[in-house]
Amino acid sequence: MTNIRDLAREAEVSVTTVSRVLNDHPYVAEDKRRAVRDAITKLGYIRNQTAVQLSTGQTKTIGVMLPYVDHPYHAAILHGIAQCAFEEGYRFLTWQTNYIASHEQTVLQALAQREVDGLIVVSHSLPVDEILRYEQYGPIVFCEHHEDVSSVYINHYTAFQSGLKTLQSFGHTQIGICLGRPDSTNSRARKQAYQDTVSPEDTSWIYQQALTIEDGADIARQWSNQSCRPSALLTASDHVAAGIILELRKQGYRIPEDLAVIGFDGSDLAVVLNLTTVAVPYETIGRQAFSIAISDNWRDHPQIEIPTALLSGLTAVEVKE
Amino acid sequence: MTNIRDLAREAEVSVTTVSRVLNDHPYVAEDKRRAVRDAITKLGYIRNQTAVQLSTGQTKTIGVMLPYVDHPYHAAILHGIAQCAFEEGYRFLTWQTNYIASHEQTVLQALAQREVDGLIVVSHSLPVDEILRYEQYGPIVFCEHHEDVSSVYINHYTAFQSGLKTLQSFGHTQIGICLGRPDSTNSRARKQAYQDTVSPEDTSWIYQQALTIEDGADIARQWSNQSCRPSALLTASDHVAAGIILELRKQGYRIPEDLAVIGFDGSDLAVVLNLTTVAVPYETIGRQAFSIAISDNWRDHPQIEIPTALLSGLTAVEVKE
DNA sequence: GCTTGCCGTGAAACGCGTTTCATAGTTTAC
DNA sequence: GTAAACTATGAAACGCGTTTCACGGCAAGC
């Protein structure tokens, strides 16, 4: 493997000059520049990126902590990160944590060990302040809202409220909700929006642990077994909504006549099912998070709220008298 | 930032001994080991991973080249890679290329510059032999079949054949297909299977450039405008199948009575639509590709064929007389 | 005519952990 | 009892590019 010292010898210049040529520094005479270029070609030199990283103290790499790379909305955030990273000449390392605390620790460790210049936390299970202890090693940007933390987020309270109000405007009074992980920040905000907006008569209309299509089917069965049912459901994700709709149709119920359903995410599934859904611009979240992670002002803990939009389908429509 | 030399001074040992303690080398006396450990705690030392990488010449990182991180089946492969990488103590860098040749070059460059120890090429647009020129710098594993190349793949010929034969066994004789990128290796194999299996009467039953839900809707419109139509369609992906089904239902056609449809991938969409589909274990492909990339025998160009399975739904059923 | 200031170049230090090699004291082996 | 085989330890080299600092030459400024 030829290195810059070999080049220097071949081109009869100093390593400094070689380095200057490599980095397009102006203070190099044209003939020496050419000599170095010729040496590069002749010896087939290729820069060792690791050495550059050690030398500059920068990896030009951002780490991404997320629970599952193949969940549609995490993947969409990743997409935004990938776009932005490429444009900025950065790379990114992805860690799939499955929400396992020890795996999340590994990611934080990587920041401390200077494997990455910064971290984007898409979703996590460790307490925020434990994660923030690692901010001394570099920027940490969250994709959900926390106080005094760099974050790019959607307002789950208002987003959920918009879904609930839509159902109300369609004439529904018996409204239930589905929540994902019960103790997550997002779920808490959503629950609060629910309590503030519809003042529910029955806590059995809050369906917990709603994450997958299968969870949706479970919830549909729960619903159909209840004596006192909601007439409308705001779900935690399009996947859950899909599970509910499919199971209920299988059981002979009609959507939205027997149960109006609103999804969350604005995914492909929503298009396919003609699902009314709260659309979230996940790609934008990824892009913004990335730009904070590589900006100089991350210490100011910038906070960016990304707006959501209600996307109308046919699973939640005006109630006919 | 304290380094290994500071530790050596503090613990009154040599840097070699410190390095030994850090790497759990056995030839260190217990008292010195403790002294080093104490120094680590006292000075708050954290290993600089970049220095380790430069020193060992290994990054313990694998690069992944794929067109889009948020396409379900690429994400599924990524999921497999992520799992395997974590288990093996590796990291992975993802490059989203959008099938742009210059972006793919960047990825190859990264291998040459020793940013990664190896490369997994999920899908690509550059010619294979151009990519293989970089094999001198490290293992390159493909997720599709090519001769004399490390690869983990599904046999698109037999996979497509199984779909076609299923349609035939259901009584269909007028069978069409959808293909994705016209010149890809996969499309060629699929087309061959089509020609060998159904000996099509009409080339207008091959629908090209079928990649997204929207493409599917386009194809549905094409189909409904044709005077001589196939009675069954084997599609390039579940997304395309979904687009076709939704558009045709909107136009008042019935699936499978007017058109039987089989998808490809075995994705969530298939579950939701009760779609008959050719299921592909993408996660397994990712895992296997990863293990080849970090194995010693990659120079032998191992080839692993992963089997597919037909998953029955309701969009392709026995033709009633 | 002399001081600034810019251009061009290189030696050496720096970032930091790993590894080779030499040395010396102990055991084990026969 | 002596050779062979461990165990334990450190100096120095290595991997490799960047950056600081010093210095000579030359042109512009007054």
The poorly predicted ranges of chain A are: none
> Strand portion of chain A, in percent?
5-15%
Tell me the greatest interface.
A-B, 44 and 44 residues
* Number of E-state strands of chain A: 12
For the largest sheet of chain A, list the strands in their spatial order.
7-6-8-9-10-12
How would you sum up the global shape of chain A?
A: elongated
What pattern of helices and strands is seen along the backbone of chain A? HHHHEHEHEHEEHEHEHEHEHEHEE
Gyration radius of chain A, rounded: 26 Å
Explain how this protein is built.
Two copies of one chain form a homodimer. Helices cover 45% and strands 15% of the residues of chain A. Chain A is an alpha/beta fold and 321 residues long. In chain A, the strands form three sheets. In chain A, strands 7-6-8-9-10-12 form a six-stranded mixed beta sheet, sandwiched between helices. Chain A has a four-stranded parallel beta sheet with strand order 2-1-3-4, sandwiched between helices. The first copy, chain A, is elongated and about 90 Å long. At the A-B interface, helix 4, helix 5, strand 2, helix 6 and helix 11 of A face helix 4, helix 5, strand 2, helix 6 and helix 11 of B. The first copy, chain A, binds a DNA duplex (30 and 30 nucleotides) through helix 1, helix 2 and helix 4.
